[in-house]
Every structure is written in C-alpha cells, then in structure tokens.
Amino acid sequence: MKNSKKETNEDELENPFLGYFENLKKHKQAVNPVHEIVNCYYKMNGWEKMSKDFYQGRYAYNKLAKEAKALYVACNEVLDDAIWALDKMKYLAEKGGFDWSIITCLKHKLK
After folding, report:
1. 25: Cβ–Cβ under 8 A, 6 or more apart, which residues?
2. How do the domains of the chain map onto residue ranges?
C-alpha cells in the first residue's frame, strides 16, 4: 500500500522565478541576462554595495560574467532557470557550509 503522498521529486518543483525576465524587461531598459545573473549573485551574498577593492580577483565582474554566460547557456538561455540554479546553490552552500560561485552551479548540475 502506498500511504506516503508526500513523495516529492525535484522535477515536480515549480520554478519560483518564472516570469522574472519578462517582469524585468518591463521595468528596465536594455536588460542583459548575463549581467542580471551576476547582479543576482552579488545580491544573494549581500555584496551589491561593497567598495571597489572588493570587486577584484575572485569577485571581479568580468570573471563572474564569464561564469554567468556559461550558466545561462547551460540553462538553454532561460534566465529564470539560471537564477533558480543560483538560489538552489546558495541554499546547498549554506546548508553544507561551503563557499560557492556561479560556476559551482554547473559543477553540481543545478540547471
């Protein structure tokens, strides 16, 4: 007998970021999905208003933009899915206590 109706599969989850890109286009001119992924990464980590010295090396915008482009392409150029992958990676990193970057989403196949 099957008594457990609470079995959930990750494929059944609904993307909470559906429509994000369409909504963004309504409010901003010249929206670039790669830049938006990097900006969301900064916001998720609370780094959107740091000093210029912070945005060098590991957190350099150009390095993260390259990673964001790879994630965007891996998500079939669907911004909503790319941002959802970032959100899932943030959750896993906080739960597991490890450091992460945008490229980590590809290594964990979170698209």
Report:
1. 31
2. 29-107
